[in-house]
Structure formats: structure tokens, C-alpha cells
Amino acid sequence: MHELALAENILEIVKGSMSANGGGKLKSVKVRVGELAGVVPESLDFCFTALINGTEMESAKLEVERCDIVAHCLDCGTDSIVDGMTFKCAACGGGNVKVISGNELQVIEIEVEDECDNN
Fold this sequence. Notes:
The chain contains 2 helices and 6 strands. It is of the alpha+beta class. The chain has a domain of 81 residues: hypothetical protein PF0899 fold (2-Layer Sandwich), CATH 3.30.2320. The strands form 2 sheets. Strands 2-1-6 form a 3-stranded mixed beta sheet, covered by helices on one side. A 3-stranded antiparallel beta sheet has the order 4-3-5, with no helix packed on it. Helix 1 crosses helix 2.
């Protein structure tokens, strides 16, 4: 289950960011996951929750934003969402396409509650 290693890496990014920005209480982490990234969002959430259980971050939520596969047609220049795994241009039907989105696995937002907000 590589989602465990991914969840560990996400938490390392979060800890590094929080340390560099003065700490606080982690509320949520938002990640963008492309359809081609090979990640099962439910498994990633399960692993994330298991890793933060019993820590000061245990109330934090993981939000997963799915990202479609988008291909750029090298023949007609159109960008289109890939339907299923048929890598053909939606405009001209050509197969000369380059994937420009769908491989993502990014931490895009870390929401932290300022310790001053608790008063």
C-alpha cells in the first residue's frame, strides 16, 4: 500500500511548512490527485487518519481534489479531457496527444488555526 508512504510524505511537508511558518493547530490539508497518479483517495485518507491518530494533529482533515486527465493535441492544438483511457483528441479524433494534466500529486493547501484564534 503506497498510500501509507504518501501519507507520511504529506505529513512531512505539513510539519515542515508549519515549523517554517510559526506552528499552530492543523485543521486540514488539501491535496490534488490526478487520475493517473495511481492513488486510491479512500486509502490515502485512511492512512493519513491512522498516522495522526493520538497526535496533536488528530482532528485534522484530509481533503482530496481529483484532477482529470487532460491531453493536448499536437495536431490541432486543442486541450481536452481524456474520456476513460482513450487518448484521442476530442476535437479532431487524432491520437497525437500529450498528457498535460492528470499525473499530479500535490499538497495545495495547509489550513492552520492560529493559536491566537483559540482565545
